[in-house]
Amino acid sequence: MQTSITDKGKWTPVVAATVQPTPWLTFYGNFIKALEPGGIAGGTAANAGEAFPPLTSEQVEGGAKARFGGVLATAALFRIRKANQYLDARTNLYTQDGLQENKGLELSVAGTVLPHLNLIAGATWIDAKQLRTAGGAFDGKKAPGVPKFTSVINADYDLPWIEGLTLSSSLFYTSRSTVDNLNTREADSWVRVDLGASYRFKVSDVSFVARASVENVANKRYWVTSFSNLLSQGVPRSLALSLSADF
């Protein structure tokens, strides 16, 4: 049964610019305002199920992209401001209060780094703070659910002696992060390794791809935080098999 409705509009401009001084180097910048759905209080909150009105976020980003042969490297600085939404550790009420400001640096590289070896790697540093909270109670404290550092490395290797067979691996790292607006509790850092393989072949002119993957190979136990200030258990060791055909 519908108990409430929100009808709001916002002016959300987008401005972007790109400059390419050389064929291999590009500089870019953008300013984005976006309309986002408001949060919904989770089942453990005293106001569970309460939906909050839409909010606007504001992002400013500038960076550079450089191509070296088959490799593309990117570096970007960014600042994101949005409504601060959290489960208040004192009252157990999910609420919107003040602003959350995320300032950070993102680095990435993608491409063929060696014959048959493709790599996608990235790292992000974020300084996430609470601003303009009621009475300044939480100003300057870390924003819940935002780790200071995350990184990922994905590698694919096409075996030259077995046509159609590709081996893949992924390494994820996430640093510690606070889980409440008072910064009294933290989720530990975690590392996860995934492995996989795919095999492409044909049967009577029909192309097939067989895939196998193991997520969280070491069966590590960890907690994942989110921008909505919720904790969830990491995925346990999981095996996935699939077969697809292109008719």
What's the short story on this structure?
By secondary structure, this protein is mainly beta. The protein is built from no helices and 15 strands.
Which blocks of ≥5 consecutive residues have pLDDT under 50? none
- Write out the CATH superfamily name: TonB-dependent receptor, beta-barrel domain
Q: Give the DSSP E fraction (strand runs of 2 or more residues).
A: over 45%
Q: How far from one another are the termini? A: 45 Å
Number of contiguous helices: 0
Measured as a percent range, the helix fraction is: under 10%
Instruction: Enumerate the strands of the largest sheet in spatial order, edge to edge or round the barrel.
Output: 1-2-3-4-5-6-7-8-11-12-15
Q: Give the CATH class.
A: Mainly Beta
Name the structural class.
mainly beta
Number of strands: 15
What kind of sheet is the major sheet?
Answer: 11 strands, antiparallel
SSE ordering: EEEEEEEEEEEEEEE
Mean pLDDT: 90
What is the count of distinct domains? 1
Taking all Cα atoms into account, the compactness measure Rg is: 22 Å
The CATH topology is Maltoporin, Chain A
CATH architecture grouping:
Beta Barrel
Envelope shape: globular
What do these coordinates show?
The structure is a single chain. This protein is 0% helix and 61% strand. The protein is an all-beta fold. It has a single domain, classed as Maltoporin, Chain A. It starts with 13 loop residues before the first strand and ends with a strand.
